[in-house]
Structure formats: structure tokens, C-alpha cells
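The step that takes the researchers longest sounds almost clerical: writing a folded protein down as plain text. The outcome of that step, for a single protein, is printed below.
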Amino acid sequence: MIRKDTPIIDDNACLLVIDVQLDFCPGGALAVEQGDQVVPPINGLLTLFNNIVLTQDWHPAGHYSFTSSHDGSQPFSSIQMPYGAQTLWPDHCIQNSSGAEFHPDLNTSAAQALIRQGYRREIDSYSAFFENDGETKTGLQGWLATKQISSVYLAGLATDYCVAYSALDAARLGFDVNVLLPACRGIDLDGSLSLQLDKMSQAGVTLLEKLPE
């Protein structure tokens, strides 16, 4: 559902800041339109949460999800991998590259934990909880359990990929899930944005159109 009022933030809530990296911002290898505009609202949100996790796409060179790893393939085409359909992306967020770095204006010092995903060459990872096989865990669920977190709030890039996949997994795992839409931007590849917004709503994820103050 879409809710326009603001949520109540408490010690059992965690802000997940998803992949605010230079390769996903204007000028990056896989730029999301207006991707850099999520930084100011996210920095404002950081002051409202006691529990904050950053996620970071962290691919080795030659990752199997890269178009360059498949001769004759085109960017944004799809191939079958052992875990299912896989979109092929331009090379992006390569480990230790400038494009993998967080946006320089993002206040990363507020975070208690960093979750890196996509670092296994043979499998991609959109969700902050699981890689794309739906089984390989990132460690985020365990960290949230130790902090007795029951509610998660998501912001970052991109709404219809890593934010949505993370939100859907969080809902499946039993968390109360909220997506802070003004602090997200989407790719909208072949209608993916409206599709994923519908999926999240149907899964019980609250889509917030207004940020807490």
C-alpha cells in the first residue's frame, strides 16, 4: 500500500541505505537518472535512526552478469544462468574501482555495518539479504537479528532492482518493511518500476511518499 504519513522511528528499526555508489549516479557506468539526488534526503534520514546499514555492490572483474563476459551479447539482454534468468549489465562497481565508491557527499560515518554483495563471480546479487539464487545469505539477516530489529526502512538505488529485491526478501523474512520513495530513484527497464512497485505493495511493503522529520 502507499501511505503518505510519516513512520515512527524506534530502536527496533533499521535504515538500509542501498548502493549509493558512483557507478549508479550520473556519469557512472550504470547510471540511474537523478541517482545523486537521493543523497541529501538520505543524509537527513541518518539522523533519525540508531541502526543504519550500508550496502555496496562489489563485483570482481569479469563478473558473469557483465555483458563483456559473454561474446556477442548486448547490454540489458537476458541469459539463463543456473539460478534463472539474468540481465546482462555494463561492467560496473568493480572492486576497488572509483565507480564502486560511495557518493562522496553521502555520510557513511553514521553506519554500523556494511554489507557487500555480488562479489562471487558466478552469481549476481540484487537483494541485501540473498544473492540471486535466493539461498546464499549476505549476513544481513543475522546482523538484524542480533540487534532485535523488527522494522526496516529502505532508501537508495535503484527502486526497481536492489531496493525492491531487498524489500521483498525482508517482507518474506517477516520484517515490517517500508520503502522511502523520495529517497530512491529507479531504472525503469521495460516497465520494471511499476511492476516492482506493485509487487512490493502486494507483498505488504509500505511505500512511503513522505519522509519522516
